[in-house]
Amino acid sequence: MALNSADSAFVERLRAILPDAAFAADPAGFLIEPRGRWTGQGVVVSPSSVEEVSAILAACFEASVPVVPYSGGTGLVGGQVVEDGPVPVVLSLARMNKVRAVYPDENVIEVDAGVILQDVQLAAAQAGRLFPLSLASEGSARIGGLLATNAGGLNVIRYGNARAQCLGVEAVLADGAIWNGMSRLRKDNTGYDLRDLLIGSEGSLGVITGASLRLMPHPAEEATAMFVVPSPAAAVWLLGLAGERLGETISAFELIHRQGLDFLEEVEIDHKRPFKDTPEWSVLMKVGLPAGQSPQEALEALFEATDGLVTDGVIAQSGQQADALWDIRESIPEANKQVGSISSHDISVPISCVPAFIEQAPAILAEIGNFRINCFGHLGDGNLHYNVFPPMGRDRAEFTDQRDAIKTAVHDLAHSFGGSVSAEHGIGRLKVKDLETYGDPAKLAMMRAIKDALDPRGIMNPGAVLRAK
Ligand SMILES: Cc1cc2nc3c(=O)[nH]c(=O)nc-3n(C[C@H](O)[C@H](O)[C@H](O)COP(=O)(O)OP(=O)(O)OC[C@H]3O[C@@H](n4cnc5c(N)ncnc54)[C@H](O)[C@@H]3O)c2cc1C
């Protein structure tokens, strides 16, 4: 069905049903994606209640005007940015930013979808609980966007991704209908799981306006260590050993290649160097134990049990030292941004295939050209951020015509291992073709049928996840 632009006549219609405050946002900040790769277009509106969201969607539905839900704008696959086609309404959740209720006895928090992740973490901590979703964009990303992309991050190995931490959502569908699914139930087998359908749908089925989230007890004792390993295979072996000894107390297990540490030096991001010589491969891991047990001792015992395979290591002796180690990991995306990748990939493969992937990919890429590769990520989830950069002193713009070949090579290799071409960032607009190429045909047909049923006029984030009709 043909879509119409949000022209001045349509904006007047919106002004008639919304307060002035809904139009106060400066549109510029909403139209650029984090790495500055795309500049979008759109009329930005910021409703302050689910009823206002409903009124906006009903108006858009009637006039066949596209809607792009927008939370923190940190998405990395262009899902929140529309460059061309009919001008959309960009629906910002920024003013829906209240913590609605905390139920410490139930380990549940209910929030508006526009609450920033860091604020949810803080509200949970104030109630003596942990909201364990954690990622480098947590100061900007909002709950609606995190759920819409089923975000992962650092603690998935222990707590699961955003989906695993959500008990219920409130959402507005394309025609303006409000679905109150703010359940606090742990068990509810009454029909299709619509919560899980909206989670990960990247704004293509409806707008998430609220969520009830699962809280956890805070581990009494936490410790962080950085271990030097000779190879990715050794890192996978260490992951297995750590699992045997520490079980589900492993909260994070990150693989870091020296390129990431070199980039921190290159772009002069201030950080404490944990080792005199920069290691080729290292693992950053965190454990959280119940009261009365020493996580430092557990990490020391793990180090000793590796029988020399781990060649060096630092175990943080204070919260400050642990923060300094995590700063390194969390600064790597910023360093990448400053260096400027030619092509970035967020792939996953079965954990035991990670070493073979890392061994084979450089040789395949070398047939295309001479590149620097920064491979890092959530080894505990088999998820690598595999980013390809120009050689030192060259600009990524010089390599634009090689980008497709690089992307295809990396994605083909991940697919050949039974992997995914989007482990945690979603499909957005950037990976629609990849989903078509690598997705199971029956899955794609089911997705299209669901989209057509819930969004018959195709107004919800057209062109994201599935190609616009
Ligand atoms: C420095 C950095 C580090 C990152 N690290 C990670 C990481 O470790 N793991 C990870 O998974 N991701 C990571 N990301 C990606 C990004 O932070 C996550 O995808 C995040 O979940 C996006 O949240 P947001 O609020 O910014 O959403 P946005 O960017 O605003 O939106 C993302 C998508 O969700 C849709 N959407 C937004 N709000 C809603 C809503 N309320 N209802 C329905 N649809 C909606 C949008 O239309 C868009 O398609 C990182 C990004 C940056 C910049």
TrEMBL record:
Cross-referenced SUPFAM superfamilies: FAD-binding/transporter-associated domain-like, FAD-linked oxidases, C-terminal domain
**UniProt keyword Oxidoreductase present:** yes
Q: Which residues form the FAD-binding PCMH-type domain?
A: 31-218
Needed co-factor(s): FAD
Gene3D superfamilies the UniProt entry points to? 3.30.465.10, 3.30.70.2190, 3.30.70.2740, Uridine Diphospho-n-acetylenolpyruvylglucosamine Reductase, domain 2 (3.30.43.10), Vanillyl-alcohol Oxidase, Chain A, domain 4 (1.10.45.10)
* Pfam families noted in UniProt: FAD-oxidase_C, FAD_binding_4
Picking any one GO biological process from the record gives: respiratory electron transport chain
Class of enzymatic activity (EC top level): oxidoreductase
For molecular function, the Gene Ontology terms on record are: FAD binding; oxidoreductase activity
EC number from the UniProt entry: 1.-.-.-
Per UniProt, the keywords (alphabetical) are: FAD, Flavoprotein, Oxidoreductase
Q: Which top-rank group of organisms is this from?
A: Bacteria
Question: InterPro entries per the record?
Answer: FAD-bd_oxidored_4_C, FAD-bd_PCMH, FAD-bd_PCMH-like_sf, FAD-bd_PCMH_sub1, FAD-bd_PCMH_sub2, FAD-linked_Oxase-like_C, FAD-oxidored/transferase_4, Oxid_FAD_bind_N
Recorded hits in PANTHER family, A to Z, give:
BLL6224 PROTEIN, D-2-HYDROXYGLUTARATE DEHYDROGENASE, MITOCHONDRIAL
| Family the UniProt entry places it in | Belongs to the FAD-binding oxidoreductase/transferase type 4 family.
Q: What is this protein called?
A: Putative FAD-linked oxidoreductase
Q: Which organism is it from?
A: Octadecabacter ascidiaceicola
